[in-house]
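From the methods appendix. Each design record in this collection lists the tokenized structure first, followed by the designed amino acid sequence. Records were kept in a plain field format so they could be parsed without special tools. The example shown here is representative of the layout used throughout.

RECORD:
FOLD TOKENS (421 positions):
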């Protein structure tokens, strides 16, 4: 029971951190660096107590009462409508709806336009009420001229920019929801399904057969999975999926592979992806089989212990970048994007080449001392009767607490910074 609870704990840590990153990404997308406050919409929703970001293509905010019941829905025109500029800048308008998706009113959340113009619009109740009673779809298809929506006197360009942005924002979301892609299974998905099946045979099949086909299968992994398909599990992919969603309908093969990479080692103790699918790991093993034995270096225990901290340090860095959406390409910390040669960046190529060169002297050098993806998959892997709560489990708990703290303080901090003159 203790071992089972330890495995639940490890998978739970990963799941909680993933959820926190995802939820903050939704908040960042819907709230940006200028969060909407409940007080702003109290006139329309007098019972409102909180706002909850909507994790869907609508990218809006649910208005909730004290018990968590939904009172309505808010859509912001920014940042999706940044190209619609008034007299001297963009304006972020709020479209306020009831539970039946009927518009209750329009309000101005913020603006970079001339303040006097914005003030003229905010006090012109006739203009802001033009959309009242319209459904989402009707407002998205509204002909502004026929509806009699004209510019506010003294702020014509700014007010018409607001009108166009309201229409464009609702139309954009409506079109995205209508045009959401269906299931699309390609040759890469079929190929990945075959690879996962063969990897299962190599991981769980008869020992004799595994040894006989090990080297040919590793060549297949390097050539097909790496150079041809380029579908590899990496922190760049995991962070991107956390923030944007899992492409189950457009890349089912890669989703299946990623699920197997996490679940199989957790359930069976087998390092499934790292040992039987990863082309970079296969390339290092092939190098180790070909190099002369005299080339191998023996590292001291102290050096090994020190180097083993690097993947976990990289995981911490990845979590921070993913959580705060920092402008850093996470593909640069791993070699996997180098297998897609036409789009490989310089940093990725350096990591790939250095890792392969190191394999000539230290077996599986990159896998052991440099791979954050491998560290994550190894963290959730079961280890049998000898497994115990270790320093890495305590470090994972600390990382979870830090992530939760950043998640909880992000929007209040952004609101406070926005209020600084």
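DESIGN:
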């Amino acid at each position: 029971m203790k071992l089972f609870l330890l495995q639940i704990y490890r998978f739970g840590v990963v799941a909680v951190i993933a959820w926190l990153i995802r939820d903050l990404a939704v908040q960042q997308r819907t709230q940006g660096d200028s969060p909407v406050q409940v007080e702003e919409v109290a006139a329309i929703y007098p019972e409102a107590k909180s706002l909850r970001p909507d994790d869907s293509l609508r990218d809006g905010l649910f208005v909730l009462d004290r018990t968590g019941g939904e009172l309505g829905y808010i859509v912001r025109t920014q940042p999706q409508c940044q190209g619609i500029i008034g007299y001297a800048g963009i304006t972020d308008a709020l479209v306020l709806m009831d539970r039946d998706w009927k518009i209750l009113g329009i309000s101005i959340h913020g603006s970079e336009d001339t303040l006097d113009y914005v003030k003229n619009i905010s006090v012109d109740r006739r203009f802001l009420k033009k959309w009242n009673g319209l459904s989402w779809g009707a407002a998205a298809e509204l002909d502004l001229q026929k509806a009699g929506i004209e510019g506010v006197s003294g702020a014509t360009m700014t007010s018409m920019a607001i009108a166009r942005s309201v229409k464009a924002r609702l139309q954009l979301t409506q079109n995205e929801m209508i045009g959401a892609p269906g299931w699309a299974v390609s040759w890469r998905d079929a190929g990945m399904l075959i690879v996962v099946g063969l990897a299962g045979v190599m991981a769980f099949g008869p020992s004799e057969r595994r040894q006989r086909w090990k080297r040919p299968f590793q060549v297949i992994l390097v050539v097909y999975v790496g150079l041809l398909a380029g579908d590899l599990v990496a922190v760049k992919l995991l962070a991107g999926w956390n923030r944007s969603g899992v492409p189950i309908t457009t890349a089912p093969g890669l989703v299946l592979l990623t699920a197997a990479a996490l679940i199989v080692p957790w359930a069976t103790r087998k390092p499934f992806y790292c040992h039987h699918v990863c082309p970079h790991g296969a390339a290092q093993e092939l190098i180790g089989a070909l190099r002369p034995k005299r080339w191998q270096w023996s590292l001291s225990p102290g050096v090994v212990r020190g180097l083993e901290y690097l993947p976990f340090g990289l995981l911490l860095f990845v979590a921070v970048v993913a959580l705060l959406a920092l402008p850093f390409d996470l593909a640069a910390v791993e070699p996997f994007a180098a297998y897609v040669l036409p789009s490989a960046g310089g940093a990725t190529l350096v990591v790939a080449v250095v890792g392969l060169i190191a394999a000539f002297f230290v077996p599986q050098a990159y896998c052991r001392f440099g791979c954050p993806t491998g560290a994550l998959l190894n963290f959730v892997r079961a280890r049998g009767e000898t497994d115990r709560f270790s320093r890495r489990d305590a470090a994972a708990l600390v990382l979870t607490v830090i992530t939760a703290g950043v998640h909880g303080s992000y929007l209040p901090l952004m609101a406070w910074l926005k209020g600084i003159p």
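APPENDIX NOTE: Residues 187-412 form one domain.
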